[in-house]
Amino acid sequence: MAQPSEHSPRIVGLATAVPPYPLPQSEVVAHAAETFGSRFRDFERLRPVFESTGIAMRYSVRPFDWFHARQDWRQRTEAYLDGATALFIEAAEKAIAAAGILPSDIDTVVTVSSTGIATPSLEARTHGVLGFRPDIRRVPVFGLGCAGGVSGLSLGARLARAEPGSKVLVVAVEICTLAFRSDELTKSNIVATALFGDGAAGVVLTCDKAAGPRIVATGEHLWPDTLDIMGWQVDPIGFGAIFSASIPDLVTEKMRPAAENFLARHGEVIDDLDGFVFHPGGTKVVQALENSFDLPQGALNIERETLRDFGNMSAPTALFVLKRKLEVGLAGRHLVSALGPGFTGSFARLDA
Predict the structure, then answer these.
(1) What angle do CA 182, 119, 113 make, to 5 degrees?
(2) Catalytic residue chosen out of the listed positions 14, 146, 190, 247
(3) What is the mean pLDDT of each run of 10 residues along the chain (352 residues)?
(4) SS3 84
(5) Backbone phi, then psi, for 348, in 5-degree steps?
(6) Is the pTM for the entire model greater than 0.85?
(7) Nearest to 156 by CA among 209, 206, 102, 120
(8) 207 annotated active-site
(9) Which of 259, 311, 324 is nearest to 280 (CA)?
């Protein structure tokens, strides 16, 4: 069985942030009907997706009016850089404050983001504002999508374990609303418009003797021949979402065996766990997770509440769930997990 030790990384600071513009789902539906109703003959058939998501509110780096105009790569990139930089700063500052340390105490920063391109990357752009040291180590990570929050947590834990006493900051920030495409008349684009919001989460990890939940094991599972399940398609306008209708079925059939294999590598089984922290990709995915893991009613209420209040923010979402569960008294052995492009399952075993 996976056992925590003095060298197991601990979460000593965890914080979340959302941008300033609320997107009530009722207004998003009206906006989508205005945008697509007269041009996309399948829109009315797909309209129930907005009601069935379980989402009440999301947040965006740009107001509604911005999405009425046609935006190109340059304008979308400007919105990404502005919004992601501001969210990075807020999530980082709050996580560092929660850890009770100074920005100059951070030795390594891991930046996880897949919804825009920034070179120099976000941690470099925010370096002076946040007050990081000149010798800070930077690890920008792109392409993990919805799995990025858990994979980033896992990577940060491994870096902290590699150098006991060092402090690692992980920031996952996604500006998913930039994938809303008024020009793209596809089911995937309608689903993205119904699901996605913007947000960021910051985590401080260390192996010193501070208090906090321990990360005792990490791992991933990549299913072969699944490249077309989830991801981005790229054209002169920007990113366009790729979603397969098979995702809930894949979760139902494949997720539990992958989790069991991960746990088995560390001497554990599902029954050893006291609970789960899942990325709520959507209502159907949450239902599939409940079915796959034989969970009782209410076991994933916080996943549903997070989806209701913020939508699917991609990478940060699982960390939003983790924060809420810790605030209500998460205790014992838990599996933290998310799914993303690849198609990949990311896992972290947490002892709270």
Answers:
(1) 60
(2) 146
(3) 69 97 86 72 72 88 85 89 97 97 97 93 96 97 93 97 95 92 72 88 91 94 81 71 70 88 95 95 88 90 96 96 96 94 91 93
(4) helix
(5) -140, 130
(6) yes
(7) 206
(8) no
(9) 311
